[in-house]
Amino acid sequence: MTPTEQDLVTTAGGRPLTMLPAPLVALPAALFMLLVVATAWLAFAGAFHQARGADPAHLAQTALEGKSGVRVVRVAVTGAGGLVQLSYQVVDPGKAAAVHDPKARPALVDQETGRVVNRLFMGHMPHGPVNAGVTYYMVFENYDHAIQRGRPVTVELGGGRLEDVAVR
């Protein structure tokens, strides 16, 4: 009598070892791989956010948010160069009210020439209550093309300043 395959595979106690179905063998391996990938992703994401937090531009934007309650989204030359649009998102509505204070006029300063643009197109100033997460804008008159695409500007808004903003 020849031994069968089942007779050859036995436990230490002499009982036959039964084979597990393939899906039950693959499940722990798949869970282990998922754990490895998730751990690597979390480590990468944490390193990315730490590096971003150390970025001077990010720190300056955070300082402006803390002071004025807004985040600068974009500064763009429009209207054939005769206008500049400043877009900003409200982070803290209570602090953002200072942005709309007529006494604290917003301004854009060209960092290369020092020229200041602070006259709003048609006197337009956002008014009324602002809402968190909403993006608002101001349009400045850009006399003599003082602000130009590609050059850095300093944004003065709500009592705060943000330097090195690229103009689009």
How would you sum up this structure, described in words?
- This protein is α+β, with helices and mostly antiparallel strands and 168 residues long.
- It has a domain at 56-166: Immunoglobulin-like (Sandwich), CATH 2.60.40.
- Helices cover 32% and strands 26% of the residues.
- The protein has helices at residues 5-8, 22-53, 56-68, 93-96; strands at 70-78, 83-90, 107-110, 116-117, 135-141, 152-157, 160-166.
- A four-stranded antiparallel beta sheet has the order 4-3-6-7. A three-stranded antiparallel beta sheet has the order 1-2-5.
SSE succession: HHHEEHEEEEE
The global form is: elongated
Euclidean distance between termini CA atoms: 87 Å
In the predicted model, the low-confidence regions spanning at least 5 consecutive residues are none
Strand order of the largest sheet: 4-3-6-7
Query: How many beta strands in the DSSP annotation?
Result: 7
Helix fraction, binned, reads 25-40%
Oligomer type: single chain
Q: Kindly state the mean pLDDT as a whole number?
A: 79
The largest sheet, given as strand count, sense and whether it forms a barrel, is: 4 strands, antiparallel
**Radius of gyration, whole Å:** 31 Å
